[in-house]
Amino acid sequence: MDTIKLIREKARSSRKTIVLPEYNDNRVVEAAKIIEAEKIAKAVLLTKEMMDPQIKERYIREYYEMRKGKGIELADVRDLFEDTLFYGAMMVHEGKVDGMVAGASHTTADVARASIHCIGVEENLRIASSCFIMVVPNSRYGEGGTFVFADCGIIPDPNSRQLACIAITAADLMRTVLGVDPRVAFLSYSTHGSARGRSIDKITEAVGLVREMAPGLLVDGELQVDAAIVPEVARIKKPVSLLDGKSNVLIFPNLEAGNIAYKIVERLANARALGPLLLGLKRPGSDLSRGCSADDVVDCAAVTAIRA
Question: What would be the CATH architecture of the domain defined by 125-280?
């Protein structure tokens, strides 16, 4: 079974409820019909008419109480809740639905803000980040051509602790969604000291933190991408390695590298890119590329349902 079929089939077994707040986007409308028809999840296509005025007012007050220490005014909160996005995120926060998928007609910044502020971030992590499930056709690398790339959407220049948290949450997604043991590589322009630099020191520290925080996780770095995913190259550049060139979770040193890499792989290798899938939240959510297709929305909803 290929990765996409596996994800949809796995989502069907739980039939979680996923809110889709972008009711006025034709791709999302089509996706909601597919999700229901294929019984992937229960899709709530949230329109403005569905927003109960009393509940909306309660959400506004709750959000204001959560954020007033950050200098936000009540009038600003009311403006936010004129959009279905924040109402949908509060539905997730309250447990009325199991997860949210948005981003077809909202920016990543908007979706991330709604998700982080309303759904909340896991206390032990203290950061939210993102990843993509990359499905590369006719590839022998990764997990039969499937990878998790992180972070490609949220944190511009993560420090060593943030990198460690990104790696741990991305690995957990690989295990939870795909049922595969994660093999995590921290990527760089250097392979174990072949070059020097501040970013390499940051990666070395991050690898050490991962080994402390998640001692059972198979992780290595810093590694150039060929040493991370090509066994023949790994034997030359890093003969003694925990990964042996068989990494399936790739952690990028910064957002610039991660975002460029996923788009290059998506376009040049004709790969499917599912996400950005948000990591580190108390309940699951997914962003979307504004260039997404209806199938992308369906598959992100399926991943969100599995994680719920």
Answer: 3-Layer(aba) Sandwich (3.40)
